[in-house]
Design a protein that fits this description.
Helix 4 packs antiparallel against helix 7. It is built from 10 helices and 10 strands. With 298 residues, the chain is an alpha/beta fold. The protein is globular.
Length: 298
C-alpha cells in the first residue's frame, strides 16, 4: 500500500463564496485534519459532519445562525476531503479508518456536551461515534442519512451512484453536488466543491466512499454497525431527523430511525419541502434555525 499523502494547495481555496472562516488543523496518525472551529470555547458545541463528495463548505449557510446563537461550531473536513490530507492509495480508506480518524479528531479537541448534525456519510460516521463515545454527545440530528448493516435492501439509486463513482473517467464533484440539490447552484459554488481536487489523483477518498457502505451482511463494517445499533436502540437522549423530501437515496430512512431510537420519541421531526440530498445547500438557514430552536437555551 502506498504511503503517499496529498495536500491540496491553499490557493485552490482562494475567494470561496460566503466562506470567510479560516481553517484550523489537528494532526492525527500522521495526517493533517482541517476544521472550521468558531464561537466561544465555553459555549455548547455543534459538530457538523459532511458526507460524499462535499466538505465543510457545505455548512456555510448554517454556520452564521449557529454562531449568532452563541454556539461553538466545529465543522471538520473528513480525511480525503476539503483541506484535510488525502492518502493517494484507495486502499488507505476503510469505514473503520474513517471512524478512527474522526474519533481521534474529536478526542484531540476533547469535545463534550456535543450536538452532532450529520448528513450522508457524516451520519454513517457520526452515528457510529455517538454510539461508541456516547459520553461526549448530548443530542443527535440526522439528516438524509442512516447506519446500514448490510441486512436491508439498498435503494437502486445507490447502486447506480456507486457504479458511477467507481467507473466514471471524470469525477465532477461540483456537478455531483449540484445534481443533489433542488435549487440552482452558481458556477462559483460548483468551483468551491471542485477546489479540493486539483486532479484525479486527489479523488481516491471521494471515489472510495460509496464502495465502503455495507450492502452485504458479511461486510467488514456490518458487525461494528450492528453493535452501534445496540447502543442506539437504548439511546434516550434527544434524537431528531430533518430530511429532504426530494432525496431519493435516503427516503424512508428517517422513519426507521424514529422507530428504533427511543430518544426520537416526541421530537419535532420533519421532511422538508424544497430540499434534496444536500439539504444544507437548499435550506441551510432553515436547518440552522430549527437546530437552534430544538437545542433550546443553554
Amino acid at each position: 500500500m502506498s504511503d503517499r499523502i496529498l495536500r491540496t494547495p491553499e490557493h485552490r481555496f482562494a475567494a470561496l463564496p460566503d466562506f470567510p472562516w479560516a481553517p484550523r488543523y489537528t494532526d492525527v496518525d500522521g495526517l493533517r485534519l482541517a476544521r472550521i472551529d468558531e464561537g466561544p470555547r465555553d459555549g455548547r458545541t455543534v459538530l457538523l459532519l459532511h458526507g460524499e463528495p462535499s466538505w465543510s463548505f457545505l455548512y456555510r449557510k448554517m454556520i452564521p445562525t449557529l454562531l449568532d446563537a452563541g454556539l461553538r461550531v466545529v465543522a471538520p473536513d473528513l480525511v480525503g476531503f476539503g483541506r484535510s490530507d488525502k492518502p493517494a492509495d484507495p486502499r488507505a480508506y476503510s469505514y473503520q479508518s474513517h471512524v478512527d480518524w474522526l474519533r481521534a479528531h474529536v478526542r484531540a479537541l476533547d469535545l463534550t456536551d456535543v450536538t452532532v448534525f450529520c448528513q450522508d456519510w457524516g451520519g454513517l460516521l457520526g452515528l457510529r461515534l455517538a454510539a461508541e463515545e456516547g459520553h461526549r454527545f448530548a443530542r443527535v440530528c440526522a439528516a438524509n442519512t442512516f447506519l446500514p448493516t448490510g441486512d436491508e435492501r439498498v435503494p437502486p439509486a445507490f447502486h447506480l451512484w456507486r457504479a458511477f463513482a467507481t467507473y466514471t473517467p471524470v469525477f465532477p464533484t461540483g456537478r455531483i453536488v449540484a445534481s443533489g440539490c433542488v435549487r440552482g447552484m452558481t458556477s462559483a459554488v460548483r468551483a468551491a466543491y471542485d477546489a479540493p481536487f486539483p486532479s484525479a489523483v486527489y479523488e481516491a477518498g471521494a471515489r472510495a466512499f460509496p464502495r465502503l457502505v455495507p450492502t452485504r451482511p458479511d461486510d467488514p463494517a456490518s458487525a461494528p454497525n450492528r453493535r452501534a445499533w445496540e447502543a442506539l436502540r437504548a439511546w434516550e437522549k434527544p434524537f431528531l431527523t430533518l430530511f429532504g423530501r426530494n432525496d431519493p437515496i435516503t427516503r424512508g430512512a428517517d422513519r426507521k430511525l424514529q422507530a428504533r431510537i427511543p430518544g426520537a420519541k416526541g421530537q419535532p421531526h420533519d421532511s422538508l419541502r424544497g430540499a434534496g440530498h444536500f439539504l444544507q445547500e437548499d435550506v441551510g438557514p432553515e436547518l440552522a434555525a430549527r437546530l437552534v430552536a430544538w437545542m433550546g437555551p443553554a
